[in-house]
Design a protein that fits this description.
Elements (H helix, E strand, L loop, with lengths): L11 E6 L4 E6 L3 E2 H26 L2 H13 L1 H10 L7 E4 L6 E4 L5
Antiparallel strand pairs: 1-2, 3-4, 4-5
Length: 110
Amino acid sequence: MGFLNKGGFRHVSFGVLWKYATPYCHYSEPMSRDRYIAGAMMPCLILGIIPAVASLFNGNIFWLAFGIIYISGAAGDLWMTWLMLKEPKDAMFLDHPSEAGFYVIEKADK
Protein backbone atom coordinates (compact mmCIF):
# COMPACT_ATOMS: atom_id res chain seq x y z
CA MET A 1 0.00 0.00 0.00
CA GLY A 2 2.88 2.34 0.73
CA PHE A 3 4.15 2.58 -2.83
CA LEU A 4 0.61 3.22 -4.12
CA ASN A 5 0.00 6.41 -2.11
CA LYS A 6 1.59 9.84 -1.76
CA GLY A 7 2.44 9.39 1.92
CA GLY A 8 4.52 6.34 1.14
CA PHE A 9 5.53 3.93 3.85
CA ARG A 10 5.48 6.44 6.73
CA HIS A 11 1.72 5.73 7.13
CA VAL A 12 2.13 1.94 6.98
CA SER A 13 2.40 -0.33 10.00
CA PHE A 14 3.03 -4.06 9.98
CA GLY A 15 2.41 -6.58 12.71
CA VAL A 16 0.83 -9.83 13.79
CA LEU A 17 -2.51 -10.38 15.52
CA TRP A 18 -1.22 -13.08 17.85
CA LYS A 19 -4.73 -14.09 18.93
CA TYR A 20 -5.37 -15.29 15.35
CA ALA A 21 -1.72 -15.85 14.28
CA THR A 22 -2.40 -13.50 11.37
CA PRO A 23 0.03 -10.98 9.90
CA TYR A 24 -1.39 -7.61 8.93
CA CYS A 25 -0.53 -4.40 7.12
CA HIS A 26 -2.37 -1.21 8.11
CA TYR A 27 -2.40 2.11 6.22
CA SER A 28 -3.47 5.02 8.44
CA GLU A 29 -4.62 7.51 5.77
CA PRO A 30 -7.76 7.44 3.58
CA MET A 31 -7.29 6.16 0.03
CA SER A 32 -9.29 5.70 -3.14
CA ARG A 33 -11.13 2.48 -3.84
CA ASP A 34 -8.81 1.47 -6.67
CA ARG A 35 -5.67 1.96 -4.57
CA TYR A 36 -7.15 0.13 -1.59
CA ILE A 37 -8.13 -2.82 -3.79
CA ALA A 38 -4.70 -2.88 -5.45
CA GLY A 39 -3.00 -2.99 -2.05
CA ALA A 40 -5.37 -5.62 -0.70
CA MET A 41 -4.90 -7.90 -3.70
CA MET A 42 -1.08 -7.77 -3.85
CA PRO A 43 -0.47 -10.66 -1.39
CA CYS A 44 -2.95 -12.86 -3.26
CA LEU A 45 -1.40 -12.01 -6.61
CA ILE A 46 2.28 -12.19 -5.68
CA LEU A 47 2.21 -15.06 -3.18
CA GLY A 48 -0.78 -17.00 -4.53
CA ILE A 49 -1.74 -16.57 -8.16
CA ILE A 50 1.73 -16.10 -9.69
CA PRO A 51 3.28 -19.21 -8.03
CA ALA A 52 0.18 -21.31 -8.80
CA VAL A 53 0.15 -20.32 -12.48
CA ALA A 54 3.94 -20.76 -12.77
CA SER A 55 3.60 -24.28 -11.34
CA LEU A 56 1.25 -25.16 -14.19
CA PHE A 57 4.05 -24.41 -16.64
CA ASN A 58 6.93 -26.07 -14.78
CA GLY A 59 5.01 -28.93 -13.15
CA ASN A 60 6.30 -28.19 -9.64
CA ILE A 61 3.70 -29.40 -7.14
CA PHE A 62 5.35 -27.45 -4.29
CA TRP A 63 4.65 -24.11 -5.98
CA LEU A 64 1.08 -25.17 -6.76
CA ALA A 65 0.47 -26.03 -3.10
CA PHE A 66 2.21 -22.83 -2.00
CA GLY A 67 -0.01 -20.76 -4.31
CA ILE A 68 -3.20 -22.51 -3.23
CA ILE A 69 -2.37 -21.96 0.44
CA TYR A 70 -1.75 -18.26 -0.08
CA ILE A 71 -4.83 -17.80 -2.26
CA SER A 72 -6.94 -19.36 0.50
CA GLY A 73 -5.08 -17.21 3.03
CA ALA A 74 -6.20 -14.14 1.10
CA ALA A 75 -9.89 -14.98 1.61
CA GLY A 76 -10.31 -11.98 3.91
CA ASP A 77 -8.75 -9.66 1.34
CA LEU A 78 -11.01 -11.07 -1.35
CA TRP A 79 -14.04 -10.56 0.88
CA MET A 80 -13.03 -6.94 1.66
CA THR A 81 -12.59 -6.29 -2.05
CA TRP A 82 -16.04 -7.74 -2.76
CA LEU A 83 -17.60 -5.47 -0.12
CA MET A 84 -15.71 -2.46 -1.41
CA LEU A 85 -16.98 -2.95 -4.97
CA LYS A 86 -20.51 -2.36 -3.65
CA GLU A 87 -19.56 1.14 -2.45
CA PRO A 88 -19.55 4.31 -4.61
CA LYS A 89 -16.53 4.55 -6.90
CA ASP A 90 -15.63 8.05 -5.73
CA ALA A 91 -15.73 7.19 -2.01
CA MET A 92 -12.55 7.17 0.05
CA PHE A 93 -11.66 4.26 2.33
CA LEU A 94 -9.90 4.22 5.67
CA ASP A 95 -8.43 0.96 6.90
CA HIS A 96 -9.72 -0.14 10.31
CA PRO A 97 -6.80 0.03 12.76
CA SER A 98 -7.43 -3.20 14.65
CA GLU A 99 -10.02 -5.32 12.81
CA ALA A 100 -10.43 -6.67 9.30
CA GLY A 101 -12.40 -4.02 7.47
CA PHE A 102 -12.58 -0.37 6.53
CA TYR A 103 -14.52 2.83 6.99
CA VAL A 104 -16.27 4.38 3.96
CA ILE A 105 -15.92 8.14 3.59
CA GLU A 106 -18.45 9.52 1.14
CA LYS A 107 -18.88 13.07 -0.10
CA ALA A 108 -21.94 14.71 1.48
CA ASP A 109 -23.10 16.55 -1.67
CA LYS A 110 -22.19 15.78 -5.23
